[in-house]
Amino acid sequence: MQGDSPVPRRREDRKRILVAGGAGFLGSHLCERLLGAGHQVICLDNFSTGLRRNIRQLKRSDAFSVIAHDIIEPIDIEVDEIYNLACPASPTHYQADPIHTTKTCVLGSLNLLELAVRRRARIVQASTSEVYGDPNVHPQVEGYWGNVNPFGPRACYDEGKRCAEALFFDFHKMHRVEIKIVRIFNTYGPRMRPDDGRVVSNFIVQALKGEDITIYGDGSQTRSFCFVDDLIDGFVRTMASRPSVTGPINLGNPAEFTIAALADKVVQLTGSRSKITHRPLLIDDPRRRCPDISLAMRELDWCPTVNLSAGLTRTIRYFDGLLARTDRALKEVA
Ligand code: NAD
Ligand code: UDP
Q1: Shortest CA distance to 108 belongs to which of 67, 66, 75?
Q2: Is the pLDDT of residue 123 over 80?
Q3: What are phi and psi of 123, to 5 degrees?
Q4: 157 carries an active-site annotation
Q5: In sequence order, what are the residues at sequence separation of 6 or more whose Cβ sits closer than 8 angstroms to the Cβ of residue 170?
Q6: pLDDT, the chain, mean
Q7: Is the CB of 87 under 6 A from ligand 1?
Q8: What is the CATH number of the domain that holds 143?
Q9: Taking a C-beta distance cutoff of 8 angstroms, is the pair 169, 246 a contact?
Q10: What is the pLDDT of residues 104-117, one digit of tens each?
């Protein structure tokens, strides 16, 4: 069902594609995929959570360029397609400067939508399962309006992304912009930051370092984890979908795990001797999360193919290499 998009043979099939947030975890994988498919890729990023090392390899290609820019400021460049991934995604990062997070979601989306109008570009918005808040409907279907605390610590992100969805639909109605909204459920893989604060990177780094594994609360809360390669396939298929497919469309892996089960799996796969410890549960931490992906299966012919053990094994290998390199570098300067 899936695989790399074919390399465009004809010059007119080659597109100029803007990836806002292209130096981040998901953005850098998307840039790589689009370059591999023969497109010209412009990575726009303010490098707040994104890393230059994520895109170092890509800079070797003539078809790749980088613009350091914050999307809360307007921008005008020639583009055919836009992916808006620019926004910190980890609760630790998006809560560090909540006002800037709201500006990024709202003003940033506005600026990119105005660019889409000027350039008649198709635009994909990276929305999130957080728009469902702490859901009362399970699994979450796109028609469910959610249960969000509008002024809690997660509100800057949850409400910011909800407002962005509203803006996308209003630009679609008023300016006929070709919009696509994907709601991403917890995605993990190589190039997550070791200090990201999200559960998969935290548990793997803790296990590899032999430190205590920190479960917040009793670990009975659930998440559904999607491997990055599957998600990127979903993105590309969304952009290529019929104009009438606006979304929102859930993208995620519907296999649901408790956080305690995830901790056990990481310990088992790393062979770590780390102990499991418990910390207080975070405010407004969703109790259950699992996507209904029927719409993506029907409209995009998309379905995740990498199971949790296989995806974790690849992610553990990545962090193992990264920590070994950091260790070596520290020894060299000592
Ligand atoms: P990330 O933090 O690694 O990437 C975000 C990128 O956006 C970084 O490179 C950062 O520097 C850049 N950025 C942030 N604010 C910006 C601004 N104002 N202007 C320009 N660049 C800015 O996070 P990620 O996991 O790669 O997430 C990418 C997108 O996907 C985000 O929009 C996020 O909300 C969404 N998403 C991700 C997940 C997930 O599980 N990874 C889940 C739901 C939604
Ligand atoms: N979590 C945890 N230990 C950690 C980091 C996170 O138990 O070190 C829990 C967190 O409380 C939440 C789940 O793991 O219930 C997923 O957290 P993450 O920050 O990865 O994503 P989100 O809450 O946005 O889904």
Answers
A1: 75
A2: yes
A3: -135, 130
A4: yes
A5: none
A6: 95
A7: yes
A8: 3.40.50.720
A9: yes
A10: 999 999 999 999 99
| Structure confidence by residue, pLDDT tens digits, 13-65 | 799 999 999 999 999 999 999 999 999 999 999 999 999 999 999 999 999 99
Tokens linked to 40: 């010209």
Helix axis angle for 25-36 and 228-239, nearest 10°, is 60
Decide: 252 and 291 in contact? Cβ < 8 Å. yes
Q: Is the pTM of this model over 0.85?
A: yes
Q: Alpha-carbon distance 184 to 126, whole Å? A: 7
CB atoms within 10 A of CB 169: 15
Q: Taking CB atoms and a 6 Å cutoff, what residues make up the pocket around ligand 2?
A: 90-91, 186, 198-199, 202, 214-216, 221, 223, 259, 282, 285
Q: Does residue 184 line the site of ligand 1, with CB under 6 A?
A: yes
Q: How far is CA 190 from the centre of its chain?
A: 12
Report the percent of the chain where pLDDT is more than 90: 93
Amino acid identity for residue 134 in this structure: D
Give the pLDDT confidence score for residue 9 in this predicted structure: 55
Beta strands in 202-317 (DSSP E): 213-216, 222-224, 226-227, 249-251, 256-258, 276-279
* Contact criterion met (CB below 8 Å) for 229 and 306: yes
- Domain of residue 82: give its range: 11-188+227-252+285-305
pLDDT > 80? residue 10:
no
Number of structural domains the chain divides into: 1
Alpha helices of 70-131 — where are they, by DSSP H?
A: 91-94, 98-119
> Which ligand sits nearest to residue 128's alpha carbon?
1
Residue 207 belongs to some domain of the structure? no
Ligand closest in space to the Cα of 186: 1
Q: Is residue 216 part of a domain?
A: no
Report how far residue 233's alpha carbon sits from residue 235's, in angstroms, rounded to the nearest whole number. 5
